[in-house]
């Protein structure tokens, strides 16, 4: 009863408890990549997501891809459910990760270059601060990660276009059948 009241209060202010729990579950699953008892991290992540220990209602997450960089020992997973696409980066778990963590100082040149690469708006008078180590870790995955995300977004667009085509055909046909020609 207390959990239901907490969830209702959170929902009243726009917090999606189920979505937050699924995101937390996904973040936790990234650590399977360093667990020596698993031969295949992707299988471990799939199993972990399938059990959905979040206790939430709604669609579970499905692993789309793992993305790795040997240069920075950075690991991320991309997962989705029916309505959302998720990216989760594994936190620190190696000496190389700690080295990235220690590179926290914001370097103006690195920040400016990264902002330009990503087309980030930098309004005058508002300083953009970035963790330099994470910027470099992200950069090491960025090309692979973007390919995965673009492919998933294209799939979603295809599904939306198919739905729209059927809806338009039904409304244009005046209820006399559905023209599947789009």
Automatic annotation (TrEMBL):
Q: Which InterPro entries match?
A: AB_hydrolase_fold
Stated name of the protein: Uncharacterized protein
On the tree of life, the source organism's domain of life is Eukaryota
> Which Gene3D superfamilies does the annotation name?
alpha/beta hydrolase
Q: What is the lineage of its organism?
A: Eukaryota, Haptista, Haptophyta, Prymnesiophyceae, Phaeocystales
